[in-house]
Amino acid sequence: MSSRQEEKEKRRAERLAREKAEAEAAKRKRLAQIVGGVIVVAAVIVGVVLALGGSGGSGSGVSFPDQSSKLTASATAAGCTVKTFPLEGRQHVLPPPQGPALTPANFKSNPPTSGNHYPDPAQDGRYAPGNPPAIGNWVHALEHGRIELQYKPGTPATQIATLTRLFNEKVLGSRSAYHMLLFQNNTNMPFQVAAVAWTHFVGCPTYTPKVIEALRAFRDKYVDKGPEQIP
Description:
With 231 residues, this protein is α/β, with parallel strands linked by helices. It folds into two domains: 1-54; 68-222, no CATH class. The protein is built from five helices and six strands, in the order H-H-E-E-H-E-H-E-E-E-H. The model is unreliable at 38-63 (pLDDT under 50).
């Protein structure tokens, strides 16, 4: 009897050990499947993030494809000059009467593209000829990623009207006049017309129909590229 009981217990122990091993193997298989699924999902998420990150733009505004080649070609065809400048500063200074007025002498480029400025940025919009925003205010607007179309005093009304049509364009599917200002230059710039962004400008010494394409390419490349993103 004892030998049969011992054999029975032995077989029972072997069965329990086998079932335990099978259960552990199944558990490991399920865990491997879960981990594999998590890795696949994570890879998909990373791929989407990288794709969105490489599509252009700066995160809170409209995203644009790279416009470098288009800008270079259109500026050359229009006889315009595209320049990039070192950062001149971005501190707030008090406007008159609390502080001195900012003038072209306070900046190293003309038109200015960066530098210390007044606390209040110039608002988006079109300004009447002879009534431009103060330099210290429109430099602040550049810091917010704005594009500013500027024309020389005395520019014919027909040319201003063409610039206004450009200003009113819908920007790559966004709303019209997106993050832009249009006004008469007040720094005695050496250009007939220019487009200005933070640390960049395209300046055109003469106005021709080809100038508009250069300004448009500049807008598409640099809008929303300032160091502060303000809706």
